[in-house]
Each structure stands twice: as structure tokens, then as C-alpha cells.
Amino acid sequence: MKKNSRQKHLETMIGEDAVINGEIRLKGGAIISGKVVGNVQTEGTVRVTRTGTVEGDMKAVEATVGGTVHGNVEAEKVVLRSVSKVHGDIIYKQLMIEEGASFEGRCDLASSKSQQETTAPVTSPPAKSEDSGGELSPSPH
Questions:
Q1: Which among 9, 29, 20 has a CA at the least distance from the CA of 52?
Q2: Are strands 90-97 and 107-109 parallel, antiparallel or unpaired?
């Protein structure tokens, strides 16, 4: 049987009965058939199978979703299989959505600039104070 060259770099497997709480960072690829509660980041390919669930953001070179993702997906190539459910935004260079896939969120085409920005840490904008322009009314005493 011929070995699929794409799958030869899938070094990590998370089985159907596994539940992982926390962030996963990998150099190689992964197949997720269980549940991951946390972000998944890899320099390779990540595949979420029909039984797999990710509750967090995913960032990879290639992402194939056959299960459920509650979070954003960022990859050069994103594939949503017919039974997939994605609740979050997708940042991609190449996107394929099969008929029957469920997707709720925004799609943004990745540019080289946006990918450089995503490698920098994300910071929240400063909170607006009540006396910063009178837009907020003071609370009653």
C-alpha cells in the first residue's frame, strides 16, 4: 500500500477517549480524534477527525476539520469536511468547504502582512475611562 506523503509527518495522535486540557504546541503534524480544551499550534498539518473536538484556536500549515472546532482556524490550507462544525473565524490562503459542512464565523484571506502580525503577541486595547471624552455617563451615586 502506498503511503500518503502528507500523512508521513503526522507524528502525534490523540485518541477518541483522550481529553487534553491545555495548549498543544508541535513541530510535526497531529490527528485529533479526542477532545482538546486549549489552543493547538503546529508547524505541520493538523487533522480533526469526525470524533474530534477542539475548544480553542488552531494554527497550522494545513488544517482539515472533520469534527468540531469552537475557535478560530488559521492555516495556509483549510479543508472543512462535510460533517464538520466550525464556530469561529477562518484565516486561510486556500479554503475548501464540502457540501454539508457547518461554519459560523468570518473568512479572511491571509496576506503576508497579516501572518506576520499573528506571530506577535495579542494585546487588548486600553479600556476607555469614564472621563475620556464624555462618551460614557457617570454612574449614579
A1: 20
A2: parallel
Tell whether the model's pLDDT for residue 117 goes beyond 60: no
Query: Does residue 125 carry a pLDDT above 60?
Result: no
Burial of 101 by CB count in 10 Å (0-12 exposed, 13-18 middle, 19+ buried)?
middle
pTM: 0.73
Q: Please give the torsion angle defined by the CA atoms of residues 114, 74, 107 and 13, in that order, rounded to the nearest 10 degrees.
A: 180
State the Cα–Cα distance between residues 57 and 65, nearest whole angstrom. 13
Residues facing 65 on adjacent strands: 48, 80
- 65-88, pLDDT tens digit by residue? 999 999 999 999 999 999 999 999
List the domain boundaries for the chain. 7-102
3-state secondary structure of 119: helix
